[in-house]
Amino acid sequence: MAEAHQAVAFQFTITPEGMDLQLSYQALHQIYRSGLRSWKKRISRMQNRVIKGVYPASPSSWLFVVIAILATMYMRSDPSMGLIPGVITVLCVPRGSLHVSLSSQGQTMLSALVFSTLLWLSVILALRFCLKLLLSYHRWMFEKHGRTSTTTKLYTDIWLSCTLLRLLSGRKPLLYSYQTSLPHLPVPTIKDTLSRYLESVQPLLTGPGFERMTGLANQFESSLGNRLQRYLKLKALWATNYVSDWWEEYIYLRSRGPIMVNSNYYGMDFLYVTPTSVQAARAGNTITALLLYRRKVNREELKPSRVPGTVIPLCAAQCERMFNTTRTPGIETDVLQHWQDSEFVAVYHRGRFFRLWVYQAGRLLSPREIQSQVQRILDDPSPPQPGEEKLGALTAGDRVAWSEVRKRHFCAGVNRRSLDVIERAAFFVTLDEEDQGMRGDDPAGNLDRYAKSLLHGKCYDRWFDKSFSIIVYKNGKNGLNAEHSWADAPTVAHLWEYTLATDAFQLGYTEDGHCKGEVDRSLPHPQRLLWDIPSEVQAQVSSSLAVAQQLADDVDCHVFPFRDFGKGRIKKLRISPDAFIQLSLQLAYYRDRGGFCLTYEASMTRLFREGRTETVRSCSNESCDFVKALAGGEHCRQLFRRAAEKHQNLYRLAMTGDGIDRHLFCLYVVSKYLGVDSPFLKEVLSEPWRLSTSQTPLQQMELFDLKNNPEFISLGGGFGPVADDGYGVSYIIVGEDMINFHVSSKHSCSGTVICRGEARHDIFDLPMLTVSKNNMEGPT
Question: Which residues are annotated as catalytic?
Answer without folding.
Answer: 484
